[in-house]
Amino acid sequence: MGPRLENKTCVVTGAGAGIGAAIARAFSAEGARVVVNDVDRDRADEVSGGIREAGGQAVASYAAIGSVSSAEALLETALDSFGSVDVLVNNAGVLRDRMLHKMSEDDWDRVIAVHLKGTWACSREIVRHWRPLAKGEAQSNRRVHRKIINVTSASGLIGAIGQSNYAAAKMGIVGLTKTWAKELGSLAINVNAVAPAALTAMTQPLLEDPAVAEKRLARFALGRYGRPEEIAPAFTFLACADSDYVTGQILCVDGGLVI
Q1: Which residues are catalytic?
Q2: Which of 2, 54, 101, 171 minimizes the number of CB atoms within 10 Å of its CB?
Q3: What is the rounded distance in angstroms from the CA atom of residue 88 to the CA atom of residue 9?
Q4: What are phi and psi of 33, to 5 degrees?
Q5: What pLDDT shows up at residue 197?
Q6: Which of 84, 94, 91, 93 is nearest to 126 (CA)?
Q7: Spans of the chain, pLDDT less than 50
Q8: Main-chain phi, psi angles of 192, to 5 degrees
Q9: What CA–CA distance (Å, rounded) separates 74 from 70?
Q10: pLDDT at residue number 64
């Protein structure tokens, strides 16, 4: 069996570190051409450069996810660099945790913009590119599967204290995933989501207080956060042909956090 993503172009937002970087590297290891998106230019360059040094194909994108114009720029980078797009991973995210009575309008707007609007904008732009391709393939009796993989979280499934903005965005992404799976299935576009739980720069501060850390880790059936490299294989599965009959699903890769 050859590389599962050979000749595929995969776009990963928020890929400069953590889970996103692990996904980009895993995709490259399976033969994909990767667009490494991150608003942090140094990180995007580091990950894309590392992929190229290892013999893969990658290009950096610095679009700040959360607007239609950034989605347009992201797609333009992919098409200019590789001529096609086959997989979109909507991974970019930020945290602005506050209890409801302390949450500012900016705290709310920023998280909703990056997670929810960003997922919508990037997906809409890429689907507008895919639709005529899929219709042409259907007329030729060909069925070429393309993939959107969204990122939600435990907060998007069961809620979390101090994360009303984040939980609302991540729950919204679940709704987008299921809706788009129904809308786009006839075009052979699979839409799924992953709910990961990994120790990254975004989650590390949650364990700084030993008492809080002990209580938090007790919620996991496996007693720990995963490593980004343990999360990435789920994305590889959902990106490749092995998952062509899987759509509208939320895959929890969380060490038994949500069971």
Answers
A1: 166
A2: 101
A3: 9
A4: -85, 130
A5: 96
A6: 84
A7: none
A8: -135, 170
A9: 6
A10: 98
